[in-house]
Amino acid sequence: MHLIFDAAGCWHRGARIVVSFAYVFEGAGQANSGAGGMMIPDPIETLVADLPTNVFFAYGRYEGVPRVLDLMDRHGAKLSSLIIGSAVETSPDLAPEIVRRSHEPDAHGQGCENSFQLRIDKEMRFIADSVETIRRVTGQKAIGWNAYWMRSSIHLLETLQQLGFLSQVDETGREPLSVRACGSGFMNVPYTFKVNDVLSFPFEGWNATAYQQALRDEFDQVSEEGANRLRMMVLRLHDRISVTGLPGFRAQ
């Protein structure tokens, strides 16, 4: 995610707002049992395959990613794909399409799991393994990072810069923040929860029209504020969710 703003704290070329699509590619990277994502009343037994949830994730791999890539092409938009390493290993033909279509591959871990509880050397290995997997499958090195459920360790910033990352998408504030550590520049990229599709998935009480209005309201508010300060709107999409009926992302 290459973000540029000038010394006065304004977006490059006078833009009022940056809108970024952060697309999570997780399909087939989830645990066989215990993965989140389906509203099933009774928890699955430990070590028993959760078939409905696994099929749900498989939908993202076989249907979600191709459809969203086609949709981005149709509108001339680019996205940053937050990639689980083990997911792209199972899709060696699909994953390179992200790079071929000029989208940015970013790292989201080697598996759908947290690393903040690991020792610094083990967390570095966990992150480095995902970078190497993405490079091997897509041919491009990931330079952006997003921790699983944004749960970062206290030493993550130093670790990321040692590994050559330029940005992370783990900030829940609004303004992009440029920081320096280890003698180099680094960008903390914000996003808001309320336009994250995983929180707007059609559970009980979901309303497609209300969600579409929320997107419009978010854009209008952030754009208005962008006249005087850095403002950014990040839409977090997931491979298995964003094409299942959210009004703003239907292929038309």
Distance between the termini: 27 Å
Percent of residues in helices = 25-40%
* Class computed from helices, strands and strand pairing: alpha/beta
> The biggest beta sheet, please?
4 strands, parallel
Total count of helical runs of at least 4 residues: 7
Mean pLDDT: 79
- Reading the helices and strands in chain order gives EHEHHEHEHEEEHHE
Shape: globular
Number of strands: 8
**Uncertain stretches:** 246-252
Beta-strand proportion: 15-25%
Radius of gyration: 18 Å
The order of strands across the largest sheet is 3-2-1-8
Tell me what the structure shows.
The chain has 252 residues and is of the alpha/beta class. Helix content is 33%, strand content 17%. The protein has helices at 51-75, 85-89, 96-100, 120-138, 156-162, 197-200, 208-225, and strands at residues 18-25, 79-83, 104-107, 144-145, 167-171, 177-181, 184-190, 232-238. A four-stranded parallel sheet has the order 3-2-1-8. A four-stranded mixed sheet has the order 4-5-7-6. Residues 246-252 have low confidence and may be disordered.
What features would you highlight for this structure?
disordered C terminus; four-stranded parallel sheet; 252 residues
Summarize the entry for a quick read.
By secondary structure, the chain is α/β, with parallel strands linked by helices. It has 7 helices and 8 strands. The radius of gyration is 18 Å and the shape is globular.
List the SSEs and their pairings:
Blueprint: E1 18-25, H1 51-75, E2 79-83, H2 85-89, H3 96-100, E3 104-107, H4 120-138, E4 144-145, H5 156-162, E5 167-171, E6 177-181, E7 184-190, H6 197-200, H7 208-225, E8 232-238
